[in-house]
Amino acid sequence: MSKAKTIGVIAIKGGVGKTTTTSNLGAVLANRFGKKVLIIDANYSAPNLGLHLGLINPKKTIHDVLTDKIPIEKALYQHFDGFHVLPGSTSVRKVNPFKLKQKLAPLKGYYDIIIIDSSPSLNEEILSTMVASDELLVVSSPDYPTLSMTLRAVKMAKRKRTPIKGIVLNKVRNKKFELSREEIEEAAEAPILSVLPDDVKVLEALSKTEPAALYKPRRKVSKEYVNLAAQLLGEEPKSTGVLSKVKDYIADDWGRTCNLFQNVFKKRC
What is the CATH number of domain 5-238? Predict the structure, then answer.
């Protein structure tokens, strides 16, 4: 059995969409590509991956795993969208972040992809993700302050010799004042793999605790997540032909029906 590829999603600035990228990639890889996926909250000081996915106050978390209270398989949650989640504790406790790689080792033979949502702070927490990952995605937005922090993340990753797969450029509005793709790639010395438009439907999906790529699959941002997932797998981007559009319409209608059901009956679809 082949071992899972572990991908760390990093950024040294809050609010750029690191956790949103993690949850959407997990959902797309499981639903559109049929992969066995685990996503992990390694933002130990301020975990919120679980909140993105409706896990409000999980009883077993990565904090319990890293303090040796429970084995890692006991802290995994099955999300109704088909992937597993290892959330963080809302009552934050001190942990040894460098145990993460060791704790993940028993799971590498089960999953196809493991995605780690890192801390946005330049400290040992982000180093934990870098050490545990086979490659990294760096999430940035097209402005100078964020780019300066992105460059720091890239330099740190290179010092730790963890390969950078590329940059995910998020919240793009296509305005003249934004940095261009070429400027960012030249400064970071890393390719931009995906350009995600700033879309209010992402926030709407977050309010429903549903990944936007499944909540509104016809939106451009959702299709970009699908194409990003394909690149991570070394596959061709998904088709945007007539059949694909029909599938997207069906999925979109199902998303609306599912949300109505959840709002009325307070249960997951």
Answer: 3.40.50.300
